[in-house]
Amino acid sequence: MVRMDFRLLFAAALVWAVMSGMAPAYAQDRTIFERREGLSTGSEIVRRVISTGGGWRNIRVLRLERFVEREGGTTAFPISRSVAYLCGERQLILFSVVENLSSDEHTEIVGVSATDEVITPGEMIAVGTELSGYLEADEANALLAAITPLCASAPASTTPPEWLPLAKSSDTVLHLVPSRFSREGNVVRFWVETRYTSDRTVTMRTRSQVVPMDDYVMEVTRLEPHRGYELSQEEADCGRSTLRRLRFVEYDAQGSVAETNDIETRPYEVVPGSIGERVLQSVCAIR
Q1: CATH of the domain at 99
Q2: 18, 179, 181, 211: which one has the fewest Cβ atoms less than 10 Å from its Cβ?
């Protein structure tokens, strides 16, 4: 049995694109890379990297796609996920994905109810001499060389994304609300949405022989809507590395306001390695 890490899948897709010598694209929804891998069944695994033409501030959005194409043109096992490049910061953003895991004609999932909403939390990944252990230095440099030119052109669409990942803990995920983001110099004002979660291990079994594989287990993060959620307005001083809270609103499971607090806190220096530091680093990277 194999534990699957979806970060590896999507990072690998970018590697395939870079190593194939793809050229940057600026038109909306333009495929900038496609690779096909033949299977013994006669089907092909198709991997694509698409420039959506979208962006917001210094963010440029891409979409990664992977599916199996059978003889005759029908498809199966589609996977699609949005990612973005943070211009000027050498960072990739994996967007969060919320879905219902349910068995279908191809796959049986054991360990989660079909009504459960699970989230694949997004994250910001620094691209330095390597990419979180998945890319060697030359591959990471090739990745930057291929994607960075997108930053030189204004995006075709400038609609803010609905969510941007900020941080996660053992039982919460934090997202930025981009529509309420403002920045003046080093001072950033923004809203954070906090959702409660719990982790669960599930087993996935393949029913189809189109892509034969063994059972594998993975850990999914289930949303806990019965615990409600929180919205807080924060202010970051990127020059002084401080945060302060301006407003806090707590909602119950029905979406009704359970508690509000408009008392502003004093600026405080974030603790190294804390969620507060990750939030500060993420919002300060957006310009």
Answers
A1: 2.40.128.710
A2: 179
φ, ψ of residue 214 in degrees (nearest 5): -75, 165
Residue 81 has pLDDT above 80, yes or no: no
Task: List the one residue out of 178, 180, 143 whose CA is nearest residue 160.
Answer: 178
- E strands present in the chain: 2-3, 30-38, 44-56, 59-69, 75-86, 91-94, 97-100, 107-110, 117-120, 123-126, 164-168, 172-176, 182-184, 187-206, 216-223, 229-237, 242-251, 257-261, 268-269
**Residue type (1 letter), 116:** D
**pLDDT for the residue numbered 276:** 94
Q: If you ran DSSP here, which 8-state letter would residue 246 be given?
A: E
Kindly report, residue by residue over 128-179, the tens digit of the pLDDT.
Answer: 655 544 455 665 666 677 777 888 888 887 888 888 999 988 899 999 999 9
Residues 6+ apart with CB under 8 A from 5: none
Q: The domain containing residue 145 runs over which residues?
A: 2-284
**Neighbour count for residue 64 (Cβ, 10 Å):** 23
The residue among 51 and 269 whose pLDDT is bigger is 269
Name the amino acid, one letter, at 128: G
Cβ-proximal residues to 276 (8 Å cutoff; 6+ apart), any chain: 243, 270
Split into its structural domains, the chain has a count of 1
- With contact defined as beta carbons under 8 Å apart, do 227 and 250 qualify? no
Distance, in Å, from the CA atom of 118 to the CA atom of 173, rounded to the nearest integer, reads: 12
Answer for the pair 23, 237: CB distance below 8 angstroms, yes or no.
Answer: no
Do 80 and 61 form a contact (C-beta atoms < 8 A)? no
